[in-house]
Amino acid sequence: MSQAVHPLERSGTASAIPKLSVNNLEIIFENPATGLRTEAVKGVNLDIRQGEFVSIVGLSGCGKTTFLNAIAGLVKPSAGSIKLDGKSVEGPGPDRTVVFQKPSLLPWRNVLSNVIYGLELRGVRKDEARERAAKYIKMVHLNGFEKHLPHQLSGGMQQRVNITRALVCEPEVLLLDEPFAALDAITRESMQNELLSLWENTGKTVLMVTHQIDEAVLLSDRVIVFSARPASILEEISIRLPRPRTPELRDNPRFDYLAKRIWELIHSTAEKKVNPEYEI
After folding, report:
1. Mean pLDDT along residues 18-28
2. Record's InterPro entries (predicted)?
3. Residue 249 in 3-state DSSP?
4. What are the tens digits of pLDDT across the range 109-162?
5. Domain enclosing residue 21, as ranges
6. What CATH number has the domain bearing residue 213?
7. pTM to 2 decimals?
8. Domain count of the chain?
9. How far, CA to CA in Å, does 120 sit from each of 102, 144, 238?
Protein backbone atom coordinates (compact mmCIF):
# COMPACT_ATOMS: atom_id res chain seq x y z
CA MET A 1 0.00 0.00 0.00
CA SER A 2 1.39 3.41 -0.94
CA GLN A 3 2.00 5.97 1.74
CA ALA A 4 -0.81 8.53 1.91
CA VAL A 5 0.10 12.18 1.55
CA HIS A 6 -1.26 14.20 4.44
CA PRO A 7 -3.40 17.17 3.30
CA LEU A 8 -1.08 19.47 5.25
CA GLU A 9 1.80 18.46 2.98
CA ARG A 10 0.06 18.81 -0.38
CA SER A 11 0.64 22.53 -0.83
CA GLY A 12 4.09 22.76 0.71
CA THR A 13 4.71 24.65 3.94
CA ALA A 14 1.59 25.31 5.99
CA SER A 15 0.57 28.93 6.51
CA ALA A 16 1.73 30.60 9.70
CA ILE A 17 -1.85 31.82 10.20
CA PRO A 18 -4.08 29.07 11.65
CA LYS A 19 -7.07 28.07 9.58
CA LEU A 20 -9.21 28.24 12.70
CA SER A 21 -8.22 30.13 15.84
CA VAL A 22 -10.10 30.13 19.14
CA ASN A 23 -8.88 32.55 21.80
CA ASN A 24 -9.93 32.57 25.46
CA LEU A 25 -13.45 31.39 24.56
CA GLU A 26 -16.11 31.52 27.26
CA ILE A 27 -19.77 30.56 26.94
CA ILE A 28 -22.23 31.25 29.78
CA PHE A 29 -25.92 30.38 29.72
CA GLU A 30 -28.48 32.16 31.87
CA ASN A 31 -31.84 30.75 32.86
CA PRO A 32 -34.27 33.70 32.61
CA ALA A 33 -36.74 32.02 34.96
CA THR A 34 -34.29 31.54 37.83
CA GLY A 35 -31.50 33.94 36.96
CA LEU A 36 -28.97 31.16 37.43
CA ARG A 37 -25.89 31.32 35.22
CA THR A 38 -24.05 28.23 34.06
CA GLU A 39 -20.57 28.22 32.57
CA ALA A 40 -20.41 25.81 29.63
CA VAL A 41 -17.00 26.70 28.19
CA LYS A 42 -14.20 28.52 30.01
CA GLY A 43 -10.94 29.88 28.67
CA VAL A 44 -10.48 27.60 25.63
CA ASN A 45 -7.56 28.41 23.31
CA LEU A 46 -7.14 26.29 20.20
CA ASP A 47 -5.46 26.72 16.81
CA ILE A 48 -6.20 24.32 13.93
CA ARG A 49 -4.15 24.26 10.74
CA GLN A 50 -5.39 23.97 7.19
CA GLY A 51 -6.13 20.32 6.37
CA GLU A 52 -5.80 19.13 9.98
CA PHE A 53 -8.18 16.55 11.47
CA VAL A 54 -8.87 17.36 15.13
CA SER A 55 -11.22 15.55 17.50
CA ILE A 56 -12.69 16.67 20.82
CA VAL A 57 -13.48 14.14 23.53
CA GLY A 58 -14.74 14.46 27.09
CA LEU A 59 -17.48 13.51 29.50
CA SER A 60 -21.09 13.60 28.33
CA GLY A 61 -22.48 17.09 28.96
CA CYS A 62 -19.08 18.73 29.40
CA GLY A 63 -19.66 21.31 26.65
CA LYS A 64 -18.23 19.66 23.52
CA THR A 65 -21.27 20.25 21.33
CA THR A 66 -21.73 23.76 22.71
CA PHE A 67 -18.15 24.52 21.68
CA LEU A 68 -18.73 23.05 18.20
CA ASN A 69 -21.93 25.08 17.83
CA ALA A 70 -20.01 28.23 18.69
CA ILE A 71 -17.55 27.44 15.87
CA ALA A 72 -20.55 26.94 13.58
CA GLY A 73 -21.90 30.34 14.62
CA LEU A 74 -25.01 28.82 16.23
CA VAL A 75 -24.05 29.85 19.78
CA LYS A 76 -22.80 33.33 20.67
CA PRO A 77 -19.69 33.39 22.88
CA SER A 78 -19.85 35.34 26.13
CA ALA A 79 -16.19 36.29 25.82
CA GLY A 80 -13.19 35.56 23.62
CA SER A 81 -13.02 35.20 19.87
CA ILE A 82 -13.29 32.70 17.02
CA LYS A 83 -11.49 33.44 13.76
CA LEU A 84 -11.49 31.60 10.46
CA ASP A 85 -8.69 32.59 8.08
CA GLY A 86 -8.07 35.58 10.34
CA LYS A 87 -11.69 36.85 10.12
CA SER A 88 -14.02 36.88 13.10
CA VAL A 89 -16.86 34.36 13.15
CA GLU A 90 -20.03 36.32 13.89
CA GLY A 91 -22.63 33.73 12.90
CA PRO A 92 -23.32 30.83 10.52
CA GLY A 93 -21.65 31.01 7.11
CA PRO A 94 -20.95 28.99 3.97
CA ASP A 95 -17.33 28.54 5.05
CA ARG A 96 -18.49 26.07 7.73
CA THR A 97 -20.93 23.17 7.53
CA VAL A 98 -22.11 20.87 10.31
CA VAL A 99 -22.88 17.17 10.13
CA PHE A 100 -25.12 16.19 13.04
CA GLN A 101 -25.75 12.80 14.63
CA LYS A 102 -28.91 12.17 12.62
CA PRO A 103 -29.04 12.63 8.84
CA SER A 104 -32.22 14.81 8.88
CA LEU A 105 -32.72 14.24 5.16
CA LEU A 106 -35.83 15.61 3.45
CA PRO A 107 -37.97 12.45 3.07
CA TRP A 108 -39.67 13.57 -0.15
CA ARG A 109 -36.37 14.28 -1.92
CA ASN A 110 -34.20 11.57 -3.44
CA VAL A 111 -30.47 11.27 -2.83
CA LEU A 112 -29.45 13.68 -5.56
CA SER A 113 -32.07 16.25 -4.57
CA ASN A 114 -31.02 16.07 -0.92
CA VAL A 115 -27.37 16.51 -1.82
CA ILE A 116 -27.95 19.62 -3.94
CA TYR A 117 -30.47 21.21 -1.57
CA GLY A 118 -27.91 23.54 0.03
CA LEU A 119 -26.59 24.56 -3.37
CA GLU A 120 -30.12 25.40 -4.51
CA LEU A 121 -30.54 27.68 -1.49
CA ARG A 122 -27.35 29.48 -2.49
CA GLY A 123 -28.56 30.00 -6.04
CA VAL A 124 -26.04 27.70 -7.71
CA ARG A 125 -27.01 26.85 -11.29
CA LYS A 126 -28.73 23.48 -11.60
CA ASP A 127 -26.17 22.02 -14.02
CA GLU A 128 -23.26 23.09 -11.81
CA ALA A 129 -25.00 21.75 -8.70
CA ARG A 130 -25.59 18.38 -10.34
CA GLU A 131 -22.01 18.20 -11.56
CA ARG A 132 -20.63 18.91 -8.10
CA ALA A 133 -23.08 16.46 -6.53
CA ALA A 134 -22.08 13.68 -8.94
CA LYS A 135 -18.42 14.13 -7.93
CA TYR A 136 -19.10 13.68 -4.22
CA ILE A 137 -21.78 11.01 -4.63
CA LYS A 138 -19.23 8.92 -6.48
CA MET A 139 -16.64 9.66 -3.80
CA VAL A 140 -18.87 8.11 -1.10
CA HIS A 141 -19.85 5.18 -3.34
CA LEU A 142 -23.51 6.16 -3.68
CA ASN A 143 -23.53 6.37 -7.48
CA GLY A 144 -26.47 4.32 -8.71
CA PHE A 145 -28.60 5.40 -5.72
CA GLU A 146 -29.25 8.98 -6.88
CA LYS A 147 -32.99 8.38 -7.34
CA HIS A 148 -33.53 6.50 -4.07
CA LEU A 149 -35.56 8.13 -1.30
CA PRO A 150 -34.12 8.24 2.25
CA HIS A 151 -36.41 5.47 3.55
CA GLN A 152 -34.98 3.15 0.88
CA LEU A 153 -31.45 3.54 2.29
CA SER A 154 -29.72 1.98 5.28
CA GLY A 155 -28.69 4.15 8.21
CA GLY A 156 -25.08 4.20 7.05
CA MET A 157 -26.09 5.19 3.52
CA GLN A 158 -28.30 7.99 4.87
CA GLN A 159 -25.37 9.37 6.84
CA ARG A 160 -23.21 9.18 3.72
CA VAL A 161 -25.81 11.36 1.99
CA ASN A 162 -25.70 13.71 4.97
CA ILE A 163 -21.91 14.04 4.78
CA THR A 164 -22.07 14.45 0.98
CA ARG A 165 -24.63 17.24 1.38
CA ALA A 166 -22.12 19.04 3.61
CA LEU A 167 -19.11 18.43 1.38
CA VAL A 168 -20.80 19.48 -1.87
CA CYS A 169 -21.07 23.02 -0.49
CA GLU A 170 -17.25 22.91 -0.32
CA PRO A 171 -16.83 24.56 3.10
CA GLU A 172 -13.48 25.63 4.49
CA VAL A 173 -14.12 23.70 7.71
CA LEU A 174 -16.22 20.56 8.19
CA LEU A 175 -17.75 20.27 11.68
CA LEU A 176 -18.85 16.80 12.79
CA ASP A 177 -21.02 16.25 15.87
CA GLU A 178 -21.00 12.53 16.73
CA PRO A 179 -21.72 11.71 13.07
CA PHE A 180 -21.73 7.92 13.57
CA ALA A 181 -23.34 7.68 17.02
CA ALA A 182 -26.57 6.12 15.75
CA LEU A 183 -24.85 3.39 13.72
CA ASP A 184 -24.06 -0.20 14.66
CA ALA A 185 -20.43 -1.15 15.24
CA ILE A 186 -19.81 -2.68 11.80
CA THR A 187 -21.43 0.20 9.91
CA ARG A 188 -19.61 2.70 12.13
CA GLU A 189 -16.25 1.18 11.23
CA SER A 190 -17.15 1.29 7.55
CA MET A 191 -18.15 4.96 7.85
CA GLN A 192 -14.89 5.77 9.65
CA ASN A 193 -13.01 4.34 6.67
CA GLU A 194 -15.22 6.37 4.29
CA LEU A 195 -14.52 9.55 6.26
CA LEU A 196 -10.78 8.94 6.22
CA SER A 197 -10.88 8.46 2.46
CA LEU A 198 -12.96 11.61 1.98
CA TRP A 199 -10.62 13.64 4.15
CA GLU A 200 -7.54 12.38 2.30
CA ASN A 201 -9.16 13.14 -1.08
CA THR A 202 -10.52 16.60 -0.24
CA GLY A 203 -7.95 17.96 2.22
CA LYS A 204 -10.70 19.58 4.28
CA THR A 205 -10.05 20.95 7.75
CA VAL A 206 -12.12 18.79 10.11
CA LEU A 207 -13.21 19.33 13.71
CA MET A 208 -15.13 16.39 15.18
CA VAL A 209 -16.85 15.77 18.50
CA THR A 210 -17.00 12.12 19.55
CA HIS A 211 -17.48 9.97 22.64
CA GLN A 212 -15.55 7.10 21.05
CA ILE A 213 -11.90 7.29 22.08
CA ASP A 214 -10.74 4.69 19.56
CA GLU A 215 -12.52 6.60 16.79
CA ALA A 216 -10.74 9.80 17.79
CA VAL A 217 -7.34 8.09 17.80
CA LEU A 218 -7.96 6.33 14.49
CA LEU A 219 -9.05 9.43 12.58
CA SER A 220 -7.23 12.36 14.09
CA ASP A 221 -3.98 14.29 13.92
CA ARG A 222 -4.71 15.65 17.39
CA VAL A 223 -7.21 14.80 20.12
CA ILE A 224 -8.34 17.61 22.43
CA VAL A 225 -9.45 16.33 25.84
CA PHE A 226 -12.03 18.56 27.54
CA SER A 227 -12.49 18.78 31.29
CA ALA A 228 -15.82 18.41 33.04
CA ARG A 229 -18.09 21.44 32.68
CA PRO A 230 -17.17 24.20 32.29
CA ALA A 231 -15.14 22.82 29.42
CA SER A 232 -11.48 23.72 29.32
CA ILE A 233 -8.65 21.90 27.62
CA LEU A 234 -7.07 19.29 29.87
CA GLU A 235 -4.53 18.19 27.30
CA GLU A 236 -3.81 18.06 23.57
CA ILE A 237 -2.71 14.62 22.42
CA SER A 238 -0.75 14.41 19.16
CA ILE A 239 -1.59 11.19 17.30
CA ARG A 240 1.72 10.26 15.71
CA LEU A 241 0.57 7.15 13.91
CA PRO A 242 1.26 6.27 10.26
CA ARG A 243 -1.17 7.02 7.47
CA PRO A 244 -3.10 5.70 5.70
CA ARG A 245 -5.01 4.57 8.78
CA THR A 246 -6.80 1.23 8.74
CA PRO A 247 -8.82 -0.69 11.37
CA GLU A 248 -5.77 -2.95 11.91
CA LEU A 249 -4.03 0.03 13.49
CA ARG A 250 -6.00 -0.71 16.65
CA ASP A 251 -3.61 -3.61 17.24
CA ASN A 252 -0.65 -1.22 17.31
CA PRO A 253 0.78 -0.84 20.86
CA ARG A 254 1.09 2.92 20.31
CA PHE A 255 -2.63 3.09 19.45
CA ASP A 256 -3.44 1.25 22.68
CA TYR A 257 -1.20 3.57 24.70
CA LEU A 258 -2.82 6.71 23.26
CA ALA A 259 -6.36 5.40 23.81
CA LYS A 260 -5.57 4.50 27.43
CA ARG A 261 -3.94 7.88 28.05
CA ILE A 262 -7.03 9.70 26.76
CA TRP A 263 -9.33 7.44 28.80
CA GLU A 264 -7.33 8.17 31.96
CA LEU A 265 -7.58 11.91 31.38
CA ILE A 266 -11.35 11.76 30.91
CA HIS A 267 -11.75 9.45 33.89
CA SER A 268 -9.79 11.87 36.06
CA THR A 269 -12.54 14.47 35.57
CA ALA A 270 -15.47 12.11 36.20
CA GLU A 271 -15.71 12.87 39.92
CA LYS A 272 -15.76 16.64 39.44
CA LYS A 273 -19.06 18.16 40.49
CA VAL A 274 -20.91 19.98 37.72
CA ASN A 275 -23.93 22.28 37.88
CA PRO A 276 -26.98 20.28 36.69
CA GLU A 277 -29.04 23.42 36.08
CA TYR A 278 -28.28 23.55 32.36
CA GLU A 279 -27.91 20.48 30.19
CA ILE A 280 -25.51 21.19 27.35
Report:
1. 96
2. AAA+_ATPase, ABC_transporter-like_ATP-bd, ABC_transporter_ATP-bind, P-loop_NTPase
3. helix
4. 999 999 999 899 889 999 999 999 999 999 888 999 999 999 999 988 999 999
5. 16-93+204-280
6. 3.40.50.300
7. 0.88
8. 1
9. 22, 22, 39
